[in-house]
Write a structure and sequence with these properties.
single chain, mainly alpha, 73% helix, globular
């Protein structure tokens, strides 16, 4: 308990320092936030354009897909907000020897990586996702109450953990590859497939985004539980939670062994 309090106190210190940095460049913050908001709006506009030509997609209607799209944005936004600094491990910190500063501090290395930076741009994703969920609720596309509210929160947290696990796993390859950014970027882009029903994809893609890099469990599959009463919470949100725990354990294990293999940059 004492250690948890210590890390909570340290996290507040790191966040406070980061916000001091943010206020020095308010224009960059606002432009980044607006850019992410417009990107998400463009994705929604694309859905509307598709449904002007196709009234239903694999038996899913446009309002249902809007809910799935909004559902997908919230766990991604949570991950983006709190753990975006993992990208720099993949691109810069190892090859440039910048990871040295983490090794010299008497703190958990993963904690240092994620607490050093917040990504305010993620507020655009969270805002769009929240708006779409509210619209879906107000239109009667989905009804959430009682136990489902708790399951919704649990699913979004588990989904964020899956996103973080994927990032951490592929970023950790940099301890051996020196730069793993391209590999991480390629894997992370598969998350876009999760915004739509997996039935529309070929079996190979469906298998990859469900069981290899399980992005289907951060959006479409758990969202389908709230949209279709015949879908079991155990086969969707239950499996999602298991994958989140197992996935993070594997990713953290690779990260841990990577730190043991880390060599500072030479000349």
């Amino acid at each position: 308990m004492k250690e948890i309090k210590r890390y909570a106190r340290l996290y507040k210190v790191f966040v406070a320092q980061f916000f001091k940095y943010i206020v020095q460049s308010k224009v960059d913050f606002l432009l980044g936030l607006m850019g992410f908001f417009l990107t998400q709006a463009a994705g929604i506009a694309f859905l509307y354009l598709v449904f002007e030509q196709i009234p239903a997609l694999a038996d899913w209607t446009l309002p249902q897909l809007i809910f799935i799209y909004g559902f997908a944005q919230i766990p991604r936004g949570i991950d983006h907000l709190f753990t975006d600094n993992i990208w720099l491990v993949a691109w810069n910190y190892i090859v440039n020897g910048q990871f040295d500063r983490y090794m010299l501090r008497p703190m958990n290395l993963f904690f240092q990586v994620i607490c050093e930076k917040l990504q305010p741009d993620a507020l655009g994703e969270l805002l769009v996702g929240t708006i779409l969920l509210i619209v879906s609720l107000s239109n009667g596309v989905v009804t959430i109450g009682g136990t489902k509210v708790l399951l919704l929160v649990v699913s979004m947290i588990a989904g964020a953990v899956i996103y973080t696990s994927v990032k951490l796993l592929f970023a950790s390859f940099a301890f051996w590859m020196k730069i793993s950014g391209p590999v991480l970027y390629t894997a992370y882009q598969l998350a876009d497939f999760a915004k739509y029903p997996t039935e529309i994809y070929a079996k190979g893609i469906r298998f990859i985004i469900t069981w290899v890099i399980p992005f289907a469990f951060v959006a479409y599959l758990p969202a389908s539980y709230f949209l279709k009463p015949q879908v079991s919470p155990w086969s969707t949100i239950g499996v999602e939670c298991i994958l989140a725990v197992v996935g993070f354990g594997i990713a953290y294990g690779v990260f841990y062994f990577g730190t043991k293999a880390y060599e500072s940059a030479g000349n």
